[in-house]
Task: structure prediction
Amino acid sequence: MTTTGEFTHRRVHHAPPELLFDCMTTPEHLTHFWGPAGTTTPLDGIVVDLRPGGAFETTMVDRAGGNAYTMKAVYAEIRRPDLLVWVEPGVEGGMRTTVTFTDLGDGRTEVVTRQSNLPAAYRSAEAQAGFRTSLDRFDAYVAGVGTGPQAP
Result:
């Protein structure tokens, strides 16, 4: 039997929940930050069918070696601008990602990303460090949305 785990990541952004939700669900935003440092996610490699049962797919390309990794998920719950839930059925254990967006009432939003049913490979220190770099990329992107050339 496979053992699975869980991780929870919290970040506070200086942006409204609607903007953050849209960044996480619009290919034209996702292409700018999706994936760990050292990867790109081309726009033509992103599928967002934003409805329960709809597909959420991204193809990340390693800048150094050109290797591609496709994440295939299915949306389980969507409640704009508060909640996104998707499941990756092809990952051992059926990895589930739940993202909540909580308006703190002062122009900031707390984003909590909870991953559950994580197989061992996704729980390694290296994998978690890579995941945190993707959160860092999201932070940097959101901070610049609407203020420079990276805004769609």
Q: What stands out?
A: The chain is about 25% helix and 40% strand.
